[in-house]
Amino acid sequence: MTSDIELAAQRIRQLVDLTKALTARLAEETRAFEAQRPQDAAASLPKTQELANLYRRDSAHVKANPALIASAPAADKAALLKATEAFETVLARHSRAVDAARRISEGLMQAIAQEVAAARTPASAYGAGGQANAGDGRAFALNRTA
């Protein structure tokens, strides 16, 4: 039969492994964004989302039930703390890289929208014969929410 200490240590090791895997994936995506290759990060997004959901679920479970890991050895708890600190560092860097990519993308879309609007002929309500002028049928939408 497995003791409480062994179960707690096993839970912590699973959390450490999950945290390290998610940290590695976010670091890889961050490098892709910093190398201006967001398409490389997009390719691994489903796996990142899966790991993030597992991490969120497992960490919330432990937070709601701290007794699950209370009896774990101090060395295992220290390993979890170290992995969590590394994760938070990479997460902050990843957040900055994603935000920068978003701002660049939005800036490009706004510049394109402004150029399209400037290139269009100003609308006049009626022509010389009393008929309504045909407007520019091209549409361009800019959604300002991310």
How would you sum up this structure in a few lines?
With 146 residues, this protein is mainly α. It contains five helices and no strands.
- Topology-level CATH name: Methane Monooxygenase Hydroxylase, Chain G, domain 1
What is the overall shape?
elongated
**Sheet with the most strands, sense and barrel status:** none
Please count the beta strands (DSSP E, at least 2 residues each).
Answer: 0
Rg, rounded, reads: 26 Å
Poorly predicted regions are none
- Gap between N and C termini: 52 Å
Mean pLDDT: 85
Total number of distinct structural domains: 1
CATH class value: Mainly Alpha
Order of helices and strands: HHHHH
- What would you say the CATH architecture is? Up-down Bundle
| Share in helix | over 70%
Helical/strand content category: mainly alpha
Task: Summarize the structure in words.
- The protein has 146 residues and is mainly alpha-helical.
- It has one domain (4-119): Methane Monooxygenase Hydroxylase, Chain G, domain 1.
- Helices cover 73% and strands 0% of the residues.
- It has 5 helices and no strands.
- The chain has helices at 4-34, 38-43, 45-64, 67-70, 74-119.
- Helix 1 (4-34) packs antiparallel against helix 3 (45-64) and helix 1 runs parallel beside helix 5.
- The mean pLDDT is 85.
